[in-house]
Amino acid sequence: MAASEESLRQALAEKQSAVDAQAHAVRALKARPGGAAQAEIDAAVEALKALKVDAGAAARRLQAALSNNGDGAAASSREAFRQAVVNTLERRLFYIPSFKIYRGVAGLYDYGPPGCAVKSNVLAFWRQHFVLEENMLEVDCPCVTPEVVLKASGHVEKFTDLMVKDEKTGTCYRADHLLKDFCKEKLEKDLTLSPEKAAELKHVIMVLDDLSAEELGAKLKEYGITAPDTKNPLSDLYPFNLMFQTSIGPSGLSPGYMRPETAQGIFVNFKDLYYYNGNKLPFAAAQIGQAFRNEISPRQGLLRVREFTLAEIEHFVDPDDKSHPKFVDVANLEFLMFPREEQLAGKSAKPMILGEAVLKGVVNNETLGYFIGRVFLFLTRLGIDKDRLRFRQHLPNEMAHYAADCWDAEIECSYGWIECVGIADRSAYDLRAHSEKSGVPLVAHEKFPEPREVEKLVIVPSKKELGLAFKGSQKMVVEALEAMSEKEALEMKATLESKGEMDFHVCTLGKTVSIMKKMVSISMDKKKEHQRVFTPSVIEPSFGIGRIIYCLFEHSFYTRQSKAEDEQLNVFSFPPLVAPIKCTVFPLIKTQKFDDVAKIIAKSLTAAGISHIIDITGTSIGKRYARTDEIGVPFAITVDSTTSVTIRERDSKQQIRVSIDEVALVVKEVTDGQSTWGDVMWRYPTHSAAHTEEE
Amino acid sequence: MAASEESLRQALAEKQSAVDAQAHAVRALKARPGGAAQAEIDAAVEALKALKVDAGAAARRLQAALSNNGDGAAASSREAFRQAVVNTLERRLFYIPSFKIYRGVAGLYDYGPPGCAVKSNVLAFWRQHFVLEENMLEVDCPCVTPEVVLKASGHVEKFTDLMVKDEKTGTCYRADHLLKDFCKEKLEKDLTLSPEKAAELKHVIMVLDDLSAEELGAKLKEYGITAPDTKNPLSDLYPFNLMFQTSIGPSGLSPGYMRPETAQGIFVNFKDLYYYNGNKLPFAAAQIGQAFRNEISPRQGLLRVREFTLAEIEHFVDPDDKSHPKFVDVANLEFLMFPREEQLAGKSAKPMILGEAVLKGVVNNETLGYFIGRVFLFLTRLGIDKDRLRFRQHLPNEMAHYAADCWDAEIECSYGWIECVGIADRSAYDLRAHSEKSGVPLVAHEKFPEPREVEKLVIVPSKKELGLAFKGSQKMVVEALEAMSEKEALEMKATLESKGEMDFHVCTLGKTVSIMKKMVSISMDKKKEHQRVFTPSVIEPSFGIGRIIYCLFEHSFYTRQSKAEDEQLNVFSFPPLVAPIKCTVFPLIKTQKFDDVAKIIAKSLTAAGISHIIDITGTSIGKRYARTDEIGVPFAITVDSTTSVTIRERDSKQQIRVSIDEVALVVKEVTDGQSTWGDVMWRYPTHSAAHTEEE
Q1: What's the pTM value of the predicted model, to 2 decimals?
Q2: Domain span including residue B211
Q3: What is the ipTM of this complex?
């Protein structure tokens, strides 16, 4: 481990000197007599930023290795790391269990002042990065939703978890949790376990999410699992709907639910939004808002909660043309991707260039690829470590049968790889479901310049024949046949005509069946059409804001020794963009004239729209720095004269000297992202006798 | 009416020439050789802004008079005006009934793209104006709330409306609505009504909100009111709780509600927030979020809905010191106030200087006054007409018994004067209620430099004697006695000792009772104290964001004739601060080179963070202006060359010519509020051959 630590240290040193060299290059460019081309400067600055991100990641990896402490007990080290982060977060009120004075409610959390500020910064950047940049149509729909809408979407029927009850006490448990906990405990604690049994239990954990209700129930019985607290027998499995139910109006006759996602509000408005967009495709609608899931037994802090903020985009596109004009802007991005094939082959995620992934068909289409790229940029700009971020493709059994392709942005934290953003091509499913249920056609039109004679594919499965042949699986086969593309259908038609039968893979069954000629009729009908009427496809990037924020907390957290080496100090290395407070103002010593200067500076910061705190307690400057490093404040202004002050950067602890008139503007520049700390370091004198952590 | 119209026209002309003169003065100051003092320029610019607001108001008054059409039928004119506004709002998707394709749900609305943008601008400004400016502690708590919290707050017991049911169909009605509608219809349509009866019905409408359940029920019976749709008899009155009820977790044993206000989330966190603030008072916490009220029969569009966004501030303050250090900043503001006395005397609201209102005790204390002033500034900067905004003090019977004083910011719209912000001094009620119920003391401490011998007031009402004397009213008398201030209590002690009895006004009973010596013991106990422990008072400004936005829509809406005089064009005169989109980009004619320039400009606007739309349809420029005036876009960039473009201001239709490189910065300057349109008009050449509404 010492060797590995050594190599990490060396990597860090190399990254840091690369940063220094590049910073020097940027300065030289800016100072070039006659001026450099803006494009050249921009490119150099971008390169500098990328190097800094690398350096940051290297530092964190070293930190992680050090905290692993060379003993390989990664799990307990992860626990300890998490405990340190969570303690800091709760103590500094980033978040706290809701209704704490009443002993709280599992799965409900409050964001306190710094957490709330981080959240509102993340959402503001989301609006800037997605809504504004792409001219999306943002909407804001209620949480209370009538039953009819959620029946159409399938949530009333299918949005359930399987539950069992302690037969004596009535306490409820999630069935899959019990099975997982049982397997894990056996594997960890049962020393008599045979290798075969161990392999079996590991397999169960792996396929847990794919077990049917019957399989799950059988396993619970087979292993003799009882209620964890009482050892009482458990009831049979039954589904529990995860929506909070309520009743709209006084009659008691209008059931409603708190929405489990924000997307449905967009789908039901498709017709109006399409009109608003001038009856043109593609366009995207977006919504930020609360969503609710009445979890059976919430765990994992902010990662699995009963109420959370979602930010969702529904991008409506012609199913025949999923190209994206701005795909070229993200095509050169390279990051960790984890395609289906690699997962099935037991490999791990690998760096891929996005453009190639789309070209090779690993990612289904350009629009889906474009959003994957934009999500990567969004997350890394927030401060997510790009080496602990991967895009994982759904396996066939994870995907809804209607979905064309689906990728999750997963972020690694102490709980493992966590799904934080889902990016799914949901095809036409949602709009079709609401069209059917409401009777209002949710379709798009493409007018032809002149009428066209078109051939229309007509697929008519013979339900009778299919029923006889496949019995209970008939429905799945029918759906699979109807869902064939024109190319597939015509191939089938040809094969059936020549050979009389054909092998046909039904994804939803996970197997290949044999289709006979009499089971399906496929034909091309001709007719004249003046326009094409079609249901748009939907590509849906859906962001779990709380999960992203929690992972960001973990990725930003590190500790460093106090100057006196007697204490470990906590730091959140938030980029200025998300830092809850951008800047602090400290008079160096308690005296009226410094307090007055501090107040003048505070006023100019407020005028510039920069959130800040002013601390005129007599505490030592080192303590005051430590206190604000712990909530991730990137810049500290120390008032040590009545004409100029120092600005200290949190992570490097470097200080520069700036005049009082300029200080608010300089802080604004570096927090708005117009300049980097490196840029301003070069413009202002370094404060040589820096205020130390000891003053 | 013609004379009045004439005088309004003249007033408008005067205001407009005052604006012109002041604008000239500002320009002259800025151009002064050697430069003018910044303070002088600032003052002149402020004066200009104020004059512009006046001119805007005068224009709107003229508009209102014109739409009244000289016939005095104000009510029907208000209806027509509202219909015009609401038609525009719904057609342009500012807001629409939710779940429209499923025939909607009464009292639930979606904000479409422009409405959503207005809302997010209003909330961003709220954060800037209140949270950032005052260093408030913002929190974000869940909507799902366990029953225990809302029992403590009193909502489970008291947050009800009185309802009656159609005895045959089961349809529910709000009892007070039925009574009000009955009285109104009688007054409007029954020509045989005696003057006495008419006076009685008017009185009923006036005191409607103060009627007890018994009185309301009696009136319904007395007037023989039946179900409006069926004429069936009605059930007896019964209370209906307005909270949406649900169940937390799978057991069905934990009732919960969707919060009816955001305030409780702050109160239950008082202890942590006080600690976060360094155990110092005063401080304010704030929260923006959804709140829910399961209205019996929602009416009035956005004004009475089942789900809405609240923005609430809880300012915690020492009850013995409600002074405010920044009160001086608002003391000179003058606006319409409507104190209790004026209301009781049948007078109307009158302009008052805020500082005087506090000095004279019309407003209870400086902190309450400070927030009234800040609310005034907030609303008028959003674009609320200051002449249609008043602060109305609650009458004694409107206020909770614990409240020290309460003022509503009411905005006049077509529905009348609407409560949009409540600003209440709620004393220690909420913190005490949660302390009691949770067992966790929610108190503040003031440490004394050295221990003090203090005299403590002890009031012990004799429940037995009071019960004998006042029976059912005993509880109210006990509470009123216990709530006496030290001064009141000592006066009572003296009077009881000298005279043996004393008249005592009990607010909650609305009458004066006679207190005998044996009914209460009042004494001052001495003891040594090291600190003072007390429950802070809470001053609560609470903003109904949807109501403010709806009133803003009405105040911003006007119509003007098209150039061809064949059409009335709709305009929303939103200030740039709240405008949903800041700017449009129009190529004058459809040609590739102008389209390219338009795209370059669009890119620079995005980079500058300015929301915009680009319209490259071949529609006439006049139509394109009209289309975006109707959603309140303040600036339009028209591309008519490849080097420079014009910027048009929405309300004045003035145009200036600006180079392509500068245009994004100029628009940023005027939308950020760094400059006014007047400022930039002076810097750039006016576009003489302005693109007209006819091109």
Answers
A1: 0.81
A2: 160-241
A3: 0.80
